[in-house]
Amino acid sequence: MAGSPSPLTTHVLNTAMGVPCSNMALSLYQQDPSTNAWSLITTGTTNADGRCPGLITKQIFTSGVYRMRFETAQYWESIGETCFYPHVEIAFTINDPGQKFHVPLLLSRFSYSTYRGS
Known about the structure:
Substrate binds at residues 11, 51, 115. The chain is mainly beta. The protein is built from 1 helix and 10 strands; from the N terminus they run ββββββαββββ. It has one helix at 72-78, and strands spanning 8-9, 12-14, 19-20, 25-31, 38-45, 64-70, 88-94, 101-102, 105-107, 112-114. A hairpin with a 4-residue loop joins strand 9 and strand 10 (112-114). The mean pLDDT is 95.
């Protein structure tokens, strides 16, 4: 999607080892405000830098509640480790879809953290 960067980005970092989390599966959902049901928008896999470019286009990025689900157990198993959290879900509200949003995940086998970046 050259020339049209995603207004929503993520970066997954393995803070225990000081490296990006590559090849981690993730899913992006949006909540229907009338039914509270979640609709899958897209799935992806992090690249060698722990990023997943092209998550959503500006055209379909609207105000609302979103959720990103990261398949952490699969990632840890792929590098020969176990973990406490089999997946991590981060829900967040977008009020102004004209802004750029960055939702990183800082991850170890027994903890995780996130914040709103730009």
